[in-house]
Amino acid sequence: MTASLEQQRAAPPPVVTRPEIELFDGNKEREPLPKYPILILGAGQGTGAEIAKRFAREGYPLILGTRSKEKFTRLREVIVRNGGLEPQPFIADITETAEIRKAYLSLQKEGTPLHYFPLAAGGLEATGRQVLDTIARMRIKLRKGTLTREDLENATAYFAELNATKSALKAAEDINLYGILEVMNALIENGNITPTSSILTLSSSLSHDADPDHPENYPGPEFYRLVALTKETGVRAVRKKAAIQGAAHVDLVAPEISGTDVGNLFEKTIPLLQHFLPTTLGSVTMDQVANAAYAELRERQEPRQRTVFVTETGTSDKRPQWSIGTPYL
């Protein structure tokens, strides 16, 4: 029997139960990073190796992506000697699709959550020797007091010609874009990237400032242009894929990292630029970057997709006053 209109009006309003939504509360104890295996590309040397050792000390199982068995063996010995868990190898040249597939299939971890740190970096393989030789000649001129602005202009034009070659573009795209995405796509298809996974990328201050949609606004030296643009394209693609999977993504942005190949190159380049232009670029160590990576990922933080700047004194969510804007080199 249907209730009368008067009865309906007199009845108490129905109780509406809303699903409870968990909000991130910075005052609550943060949730620690699950100790899933971490697949680290570029673990064979430099910053990637330091980050691997840092997480190994905290008891994380590691899958070490290196180009050679020798590099894996050296790092494995250090990790095990210092009490870390026995790491797994992921031996492949990530610029070679066939090698990536072979190395990935050897993991056979369907549906197992992983953390993914695509830290492999490069892109100067096709032009690096010419760049180093040119900069070496200009450093000699700088010491003799004969370096001119025309020298910088000529070097810049030469580097632009090198960057216009197919081999230069391929070298930069293969490692900074296609290789890391090939692995990530395989992990997604295999169910390894989940909402509880964390993904870490490492950018330079120049690649972070580069805009692939407006390459004409690139703010740094010409020899690094393709590396910066392809690296930023790769980071943006990784972030988009992470968001679709609900995974966390942290992009660590560092200035010159001392002791790395690129860091050493910039150490040689900065004095040339400073001779004519006001140029400041911070410098951090590989240990500082590794500690920053662990500090950012050891606990769940919001937002899930974020950019963090590494400085000499720690980390910041605001871009430091690095300045290397130059039309030269």
Describe this structure as you would to a colleague.
By secondary structure, the chain is an alpha/beta fold. The chain has one domain (32-316): NAD(P)-binding Rossmann-like Domain (Rossmann fold, 3-Layer(aba) Sandwich), CATH 3.40.50.720. It has eleven helices and ten strands. It has helices at residues 5-10, 46-57, 69-81, 97-105, 128-144, 149-163, 166-189, 205-209, 225-245, 261-274, 286-297, and strands at 38-41, 62-66, 88-91, 115-118, 198-204, 248-254, 256-257, 283-284, 305-311, 314-316. Strands 3-2-1-4 form a four-stranded parallel sheet. Strands 5-6-9-10 form a four-stranded mixed sheet, with helices on both faces. A two-stranded parallel ribbon has the order 7-8. Strand 2, helix 3 (69-81) and strand 3 (88-91) form a beta-alpha-beta unit. The protein is globular. The protein starts with a helix and ends in a 13-residue tail after the last strand. Residues 1-29 have low confidence and may be disordered.
